[in-house]
Amino acid sequence: MDRTQIEATVLDMVNKAKAAARVIGAMPAALKNTILLEVGEALIAQQAFILAENAKDMAAAEQKGISAAMLNRLQISEKGIKDMVQGLREVAALEDPVGEVSEMRRRPSGITVGRMRVPLGVILMIYESRPNVTIDSAALCLKAGNAVILRGGSEAINSNLALAKVLQEVLAKHAVDPAIVQVLSFTDREGIDCLLQQEEYIDLVIPRGGEGLIRAVTEKSRIPVLKHYKGVCHCFVDEDADQEMAIRVILNAKVQRPGVCNALEGLLVHREIANEFLPKVATALKEAGVRILGCHRSCLLCDEMIEPAGESDWGTEFLDLALVVRVVADLDEAMDYIDRYGSKHTEIILTRSYERSQRFLREVDASAVMVNASTRFNDGGQFGLGAEIGISTTKLHAYGPMGLKELTTRKFIVYGAGETRA
Amino acid sequence: MDRTQIEATVLDMVNKAKAAARVIGAMPAALKNTILLEVGEALIAQQAFILAENAKDMAAAEQKGISAAMLNRLQISEKGIKDMVQGLREVAALEDPVGEVSEMRRRPSGITVGRMRVPLGVILMIYESRPNVTIDSAALCLKAGNAVILRGGSEAINSNLALAKVLQEVLAKHAVDPAIVQVLSFTDREGIDCLLQQEEYIDLVIPRGGEGLIRAVTEKSRIPVLKHYKGVCHCFVDEDADQEMAIRVILNAKVQRPGVCNALEGLLVHREIANEFLPKVATALKEAGVRILGCHRSCLLCDEMIEPAGESDWGTEFLDLALVVRVVADLDEAMDYIDRYGSKHTEIILTRSYERSQRFLREVDASAVMVNASTRFNDGGQFGLGAEIGISTTKLHAYGPMGLKELTTRKFIVYGAGETRA
Fold it and tell me: Domains along chain B?
């Protein structure tokens, strides 16, 4: 397509999305839930069609020589469809946040003022290869009363269009505007660029993917962007920590699922217990297959278990069985280190000290700050938000896991009896 | 200054601000309040110095041939200083939002999760000529635990630096990092451009000024921007409205202070009462000196009181004794009009109908939606937020008047006892 066609297509999409946002914004929860459950049924009924469209993407990707890991993420399996259906059921079961009224108070003027939770409007999702994001994101946006425009990876275009078709057929069956969920039907990069200029129509952009994608979207977008940057999570082991518990928590944080953003990437150990604790934890980590890069002191204490860390290793998001270790003088040095190398994702302290637990909770700036618990708990499900659409590591609008509520906003409502301002 | 010097100066400022943010973020409310009250005392004690520095700006502005209105906004009077002091006292009296913990709940895993209200970090204020914004904004940012960088109009540079000096001397007296409040000390435009790239250091930009300023900042900024666009506020007079009350509310909304963003700019009248109501309201508005531009029908009904409106008049922010009037068929047509021409600021319905009041409250998308009350109530003070730093007309983070709470965010905190994720 040429530039004029792209602009015309995008403008048509955003206009349709804005109109559809009014429809979904006013839809009662019962109908939204029925639609979500029926989409699940339709995914199963149309499994053959979806797998066939996905096979086209897989064939094209293989021809292009795409890596096995990428192919794996691109593939939709029967199990993958079952997972999508399960996800739809879970979202249908969540409480509808729209319409909640809070903080209603009579003011001295006589008016009664409160806040009503309302959808954001139109959300643009930009994501990479995994086609299941199409259904997962659409379900969350729809349940929160938003219209959504989906722009997945170009290699997944047939899969994404197939999934959107199934979804839109259910909407059409209920005589509901199918533009509530739209997939960008072409893969030219100019399509994204043009969408990111539509601040009059789109209320929020959520990029899901690597740091490069998020930075590129932030640079180009005039629309507010919810950013989920990397997770460089730390654990500070205080001088009086329960050492057995510490080893258990550290192993869980690093080893249980090393490739995710809430996995542990850096260990800070109080110098008073370094001699005793470091060899123990290093042994446990080595047994679990973890590569350890450490400061000079920790290398001396642990012989060959710890390799010397280079300057660039501090603050690295390994996403793998690897981490850095540093011996620190006290809580202040630990917090300075976290301030310098952390990514505002998840930071934990292991301690028996009331005072230091409180200082850590108050003073450390991260989306989740924890005492004596694994970093792996920073997750919408674990925190009780239900399904999550991402974990925000910037502070505007949402900080930490984003559930349905974070896909809404609150407007002020006023009940009066003819009051005027003096 | 050349580009390299500007970049070095800006980088120095943002580094200092980030360090200062940790200091103010952890400061107890009592000390913050003492500082605010002492700044008030210092403003009075150093009034001669402030007025002398302001006189330099005034002289330079006069030489440049700046308009009388601009000169008026630039001038600091003794009354102006008293108002700043009063503002400081009001902010000191507000409850400190920082540290509030809410939604603490035990989760099935055993961990206890809640949310702690924390400062945003570093806020950049960009504003136009009025130097009182320097003190007002600094007070709100400081009370909410944030460091602030102020970039006022270049014509007010001496006034702003003088005010900041008074403020910083109070900070220094308490041995507190003076970089909590910094004024950009030079007026080159590249200074703003460079600041707007510092997303690693600055958490939020708040432009205060005309639409042009806000659009320019939004286009250039990589940092989230809180936008206060124009206020094109409407009133829909329903067929069964109390007509005397309607005239009273409409007059208040249009006439009480026509130059502000929550003043009425458009009147929509149900066709069932147009014959009776329009001549009455037009007479009242004309008596108050209001120019009325109307649709064909309203012109017919009101002879010479209403001039025909041109297409470009609909949706205009007059900020003056003028408004547009249109006769509409019903609530749906009124809401379609508001959706098309409104600016998501303030929309009101005057009605006796329960059903239509509820539909209007639910379905109209604006930062404040009201039944039977004047648009003029959309204000932080009137809504009970205390002093406000602006009225957001976009939906991310804040929608409507922004008080202290809107200058903070919430992080998750977790109390555990060694829990790990299964």
Answer: 3-228+402-413 (3.40.605.10), 233-378 (3.40.309.10)
